[in-house]
Amino acid sequence: MFIDLRSDTVTKPTEGMRKAIYQAEVGDDCFGEDPVVRALEEYCADYFQKEAALFTTGGTLSNQLAMKSLTNPGDEIFLDASYHINFYEAAATSAFSGVNFSLSRHDSGLFDVSDLEKLYASKCRWNQNYAMPRVVVVENTLGCKGGAIFPLQQMNDVFGYAKSIGAYRYLDGARILHASIASSIDVTSYTENADLMAMCLSKGLGAPVGSIMVGSTELIQRAKKYRKWFGGDLHQGGMMAAAGLYAMQHHVERLAEDHEHAALLHRLLGELDDAPAHYKGTNMVTLDISSLGMSPLQFGSYLSQQGVAGLPYNAREMRFMPHINITRTDIQKAAEIIKAAVREHTPAREAIK
Questions:
Q1: Mean per-residue pLDDT for 206-221?
Q2: Which domains does the chain have, with CATH numbers?
Q3: What is the pLDDT of residues 25-40, one digit of tens each?
C-alpha cells in the first residue's frame, strides 16, 4: 500500500464525482452553450456573493488572468515573495503582463499595512519615472508557509490600504475554503473586499482539474477575453465543470476531516526530537529534517521506497498533506513509517552503529 501525501492535488475522483462527469450534459462553451459550465459559474458567483464567475483550467491560469486583467504593462504589484504567483509560476507574469513585482519578505508571509507603506515609500512615485502599484495580492491560505491562515482583520486592513492608494485587491484563494472551515468564518467575509478572487477546485476539493474566478461582471469579462488570448477557452467543458460543481456541492464541509488528519499526523510526529513537526491549522504538516544530514530530496526518495510520499518543501523541510483519498488509518500508518525513517537516519544512531 502506497500513501501519497505530497499534495491535495494528487486525488482521484470519488464515485459520485465520476458519475457526475459521465452524465454531464455538454455544449460548446465557446458559444456560451455548455449548461454545466454555466451552472458552475452561477453557483460559485452566488456562493461567494459576487456578480460573476469564470471557470478556468487551473489556479496558475486564474492568477495570470487576474494579473493581466488588473494591470497595464509597466505597473507594479505588491505581494510577498513566498506567494504562488511569484514562487511557482515560472515568472509568467513578467512575460504575459509586463509588470514589476515589489516584494515583502516575511518568515510568516503575513505582511501588514506597515509593510505595504514601506514598499510604497521605496520610490518617490511623483511622476511617471516610477512604476505605480496597481494590485495588492493576498494569498490565503499560505501555500509556502505550511497552510497558515491570513487573519481576516489583517487581510481587510491590507485591502483597505490597497484601495486608499488606488490599487486593485486580488485574493489568491486557492485554498480559501480551508481558511473558512478551519476558522469557522463564513467564506464571504474573506472574499467581500476582494475585487477578484480565484479558488482551486483541485486542491482539497477533489476535482481532477479546474479553478474558479469570481468578481465584478466587468473584471470577469476582461478575464474571459484574456482566457482566449492564453488558449484557455474550452468547447465541451462540461465534464470538467461537472467535477468542480460536484466538489462544491459535496466536498466543502469534509475539508475539516483533512484538517483533523493533519492535526493527528502532527501529534504523532511530535515524538521526534530530531525532526520537529509544524502545523498551522489547516491541511499541511511540515517536518524539519535539517539535523539528519541529508537533503529533503534524499529523505523523500528513501521515504517513498518505504511506502509514503511527501514533498521536498524547501532546503530544510518535507511537507505532508492529507486529502480526500486518505483515511485515519493511512495517517497512522504513514506516521509510523516517517518516524522509523527519521530514526534510521538520526546521526546519533549512525554513530552508535
A1: 97
A2: 15-250 (3.40.640.10), 254-352 (3.90.1150.10)
A3: 999 999 999 999 999 9
